[in-house]
């Protein structure tokens, strides 16, 4: 155990030092595993959902790893207090160079501690809809509706306007706009639109389906279908299905969806006594 492995001047690393480092690493991993199992086992008892449990575990994990890293430095003979004091100027320089990175890390700590955003939450960021899969210390990972995994800097979530659809009630209201030709039976159009939304199995609370006659458009009568659904992340598929039903029912009832059109009127004003040019020959 006293066998010398590396010697640089007065600095030596012995076999027992390596054993201690490996021991600290193994103990840390085991401790984290036990904490994780205990948290996820007791989450129903202490009324925590998966997102909150994940956030608490991430905070604990980072704290324990920082402590473990400090022990490792002490084990190999590096005094943490001396290291911090001696590298203060260097840390200032690094902080200025990595300002955005530190901003992302602080934002990650805020997200994990506040728990305003959790795993499986549906967010709207810069017009894109994402389901959060992972919240890290610097970045978070989300899946958009095209099944593309997106890495998001945490500062983007904390500093920008973000809509968290998961903070709504389970039922969220959505809209579909559609126009029909002038001369259509308004009552029949409203009936067909309501039936079309009614047929979809993922439309919640059928009694809340509402049809609005919005306006007299340039080329059509404008209607709006309002419905509620719990399928927030895949709502575009639900809307597509409802539009297909609307199109089919419109054909069955001879309701026309008009093309944009414009009437042009040409005004002519020719004089009957228009004089012909004189022939000078």
TrEMBL record:
Q: Where is the Mechanosensitive ion channel MscS C-terminal domain?
A: 175-257
Assign the protein's first listed, main location to one coarse class. membrane
Asked if the Swiss-Prot or TrEMBL record annotates the protein with the keyword Transmembrane helix, the reply is yes
Q: Which InterPro entries match?
A: LSM_dom_sf (IPR010920), MS_channel_1st (IPR049142), MS_channel_C (IPR049278), MscS-like_channel (IPR052702), MscS_beta-dom_sf (IPR023408), MscS_channel_2nd (IPR006685), MscS_channel_C_sf (IPR011066), MscS_channel_TM-2 (IPR011014)
Give the UniProt subcellular location, in the record's own words: Cell membrane
Annotated GO molecular function terms are: mechanosensitive monoatomic ion channel activity
Q: Which GO terms describe its cellular component?
A: plasma membrane
- What stretches pass through the bilayer? 12-35, 55-73, 80-98
- Tell me the membrane topology, using the record's own terms: Multi-pass membrane protein
Q: Entry's Gene3D superfamilies?
A: 1.10.287.1260, 2.30.30.60, 3.30.70.100
Occurrences of domain Mechanosensitive ion channel MscS (ranges): 101-167
| UniProt key word Transmembrane helix | yes
Residues forming the Mechanosensitive ion channel transmembrane helices 2/3 domain are 58-99
Q: Which UniProt keywords apply?
A: Cell membrane, Membrane, Transmembrane, Transmembrane helix
What the entry lists under Pfam families is as follows:
MS_channel_1st (PF21088), MS_channel_2nd (PF00924), MS_channel_3rd (PF21082)
User: What family does this chain come from, according to its entry?
Assistant: Belongs to the MscS (TC 1.A.23) family.
What is the official name of this protein in its record? Mechanosensitive ion channel
- Source organism of the structure: Lutibacter maritimus
